[in-house]
Each structure stands twice: as structure tokens, then as C-alpha cells.
Amino acid sequence: MVTRWETLRSHLRRDRLHRLLWEMVEIYSPSGKEEDIQLFLEKTLQDAGLTVYREPLDETRFNLRCVLGAGEPDFYLVGHVDTVADWDLQETGPRQQGGTFHGLGSADMKAGCAAMVEAFLTLAENLPAEQQPSVGLLLVVGEEEDGAGSLAFLAERRPAWVVIGEPTGLQACCAHYGYVEVVLTTSGRRSHSCLPEQGHNAVESMLRVLLQLGRIPLLRKPDSGLVYSIREMNSSQAGFVVPDRCETWIDLHLAPTLDLDRTIATLRRRLDVARRHIPGLELEVEIPWASRSYDLGSDHWPGHALAELYPRLARPLAFTAFRSHSDGNLFYEKGTRPLLLGPGSLETAHTWDEQVPLEEVDLAAAIYLGLCLAAPGPRDGSLLFGGNEGTDDPEGRQSFA
């Protein structure tokens, strides 16, 4: 028996999806400069007859929200349209080599966004209004900086579930690492570079602080669940002098097994040790961002739906944790359950050779389509994965049976 999902999957337009991805990557959209790509996506959705709502953050920045079905959806597909900046001035435009698509933002996460848009267009074009699932599509700005787009959405709405298309290699990330951003600043005394004894070198102080941090057992154990990365270091630029200021940005990613507050307390204790043992140290510590980890398990309607979908796609299903920071942390803190799943991988994201397999982009569109059909909605039994009869489980998930 051909299922409803299989019928709709046959209507996914691979050529349109790949063209959409190409055009999205062609538009440079670093955080803060997303207007052009949002105007393009707004027109794409409107040309298909969909109603699109702009949700402004300021004069030039806005989220896009689109809904199907009746009522306020309790399930949204969520994608961020912004990318990191092209700091290296590399060739970041779209290009294809065989079955791999390259370009800035291709994996993180314009491929996920394109697959979500294609799934939404397919539902709108092939189901009459009364049979469309009650689901939403949210395209946000600002994820790569401060999550401003998702925070603006969450100030107005709290759906029960979202699927965020971050690059996971199509693994289902129902768990998520926590994140702590730490800024350390050391101060010294400037002197001529040939007379270092008359000054106090802020860079040397910083290096000693970092050596102290390296003695924390959590950082020394590769299996501790804590990922420690010195992201950036800079000193005062004043010519041929001993630097009187040094700033270091550190990223800490915490596995769901680690407690956020306890980890921060451990960090602060070690920095207090540094203050006592490093002569002349003047150290400022700032934590501009801290997000808790979470683990939703796999016993819920999205997990069940994926367990039925993946064998039909001839693809193994793995439930794992997302290792980076994302808007998933923000949704979880506001009471929405986020599952991260998208094409591409973190290995090439934010690099000059960012890339995504086109096969994964195609599969992502089919997976998002299936999740939309499986989402619990106000019309029991009308939206089916299976045949025209179908059954619901106690959570309201539609069955493939």
C-alpha cells in the first residue's frame, strides 16, 4: 500500500530544491545583514500562494513565519538564514562538485532551510486546505550572534515542539550540549619594548592564566564531556611596546551529563587560584552567555515518527547530542522541546570549504515532510502517514501502519 507520505514525497521537486539552495547561498547574509535573503524567501513562499508573516526586530531585520492548517501550530520547522561573516575573503559563492554542494552557509544552515521550504511548498501544493497539517515554518535571523530572531519569536509564541535544521548529518539530536562563553581580560603597564622590566606584560599574564585553566581536571580528561576551545586572543595594538591589555574569548561546550552552575563555579575557583599565584595579575572575568544542556530522550512522537521514517529511507537512525551551541538551547529554556536534525555536518561549518551532500538535502526534505504529517494536530485521524484510515497513538502521533 502506498502511504500518504510516500505519495507526497514523490511530489518533492528535487530540481526546485537544488535551485533554491543555490540561490540562497548566492545571497551573502551574515548576521545583521539578512534582509536580502528574507526578501527572497518571502517572495518564494508568496509566489506559491502561501501567506507569510513578517515579524520585525528592527527597521531592516525580520523573521518570516508561515503556517498551514487550522489554528496556531504546536510544531514548527525552524531554520536560521544568517551565516558567519566571510572573514577570510575566500570564494564563498555556490558551486557544485559531483554530489556535493559548496558555499558559505551551505551546511549551516541554508541547506536545512531550503529543505524545509521545499517540504512546506509540497504540502501546500498537494493537499487541500482542509487536509493540511497544523504546522509552522519559521525562518529566523541572528542565530550566529545572539539568537535575536528566535528570542523575538519566543516572546510571542511557545510551540510544544520544533525541529531545527542544524547540520547533524541527519542524525536526530534530541540531546544538546550546554554552552558557556567566557571573556578574560588581563591588564598590565605599558613600556618600551626594549625595556620590558619597566612594564608589566598583559600577554604574559594571560598565558599564565590559561596555563592555570589547563590544570582543571575537567579540561585534562578527553572523556569528561567538556569541550574547551580558545576562540580568540588579542592584545593592545600600540606599536613597539610591552602590551598593557590582552583579551581572550573561550568557548566551553558541556555534555548533558555536566551541570552548568557547577562547571562555572569550578572555572571561577581556578581563576581565583590564578589571582593568588600570578604576580601582579589584574584579571577581569565576564560570562556574556551561558546555556544549559538538555536530553529529551527518544520516547516521544518525533522519535517514534523518525523510527518509522528512516527504514523507509534505507538510512540508519541514530539519536545523539548536538555538540555546538544553537537556538535549540533558547527554545528549551523557554519550555519548547527542540529536536535538531539537518543535512551537512559541523566539521565543515564555518570553514572556507563549507559543504553539504545533495543526497542529504533531498532526504532532509522527505524527513521534514514526514514530521509535518506526523505532528499532532486538531484534526484527529485526518493527517496520515499510512493509508486513508490510520490510527493515532496516545500522544496523537499519526501512524505509518
Automatic annotation (TrEMBL):
Organism, as annotated:
Syntrophotalea carbinolica (strain DSM 2380 / NBRC 103641 / GraBd1)
Q: Which family does it belong to?
A: Belongs to the peptidase M20A family.
- Which keywords describe this protein according to UniProt? Hydrolase, Metal-binding, Zinc
Question: Per its UniProt record, what PANTHER family does this chain match?
Answer: ACETYLORNITHINE DEACETYLASE, PEPTIDASE M20 DIMERISATION DOMAIN-CONTAINING PROTEIN
Q: What is this protein called?
A: N-acetylornithine deacetylase, putative
Which GO-annotated molecular functions does the record name?
hydrolase activity; metal ion binding
Which metal ions or organic cofactors does this protein require, according to UniProt? Zn(2+)
- What InterPro entries does its record include? ArgE/DapE_CS, Bact_exopeptidase_dim_dom, Peptidase_M20, Peptidase_M20_dimer, Peptidase_M20A
Domain of life of the native organism: Bacteria
- State the coiled-coil residue ranges: none
The record places domain Peptidase M20 dimerisation at 175-272
Query: What Pfam families is this protein classified in?
Result: M20_dimer, Peptidase_M20
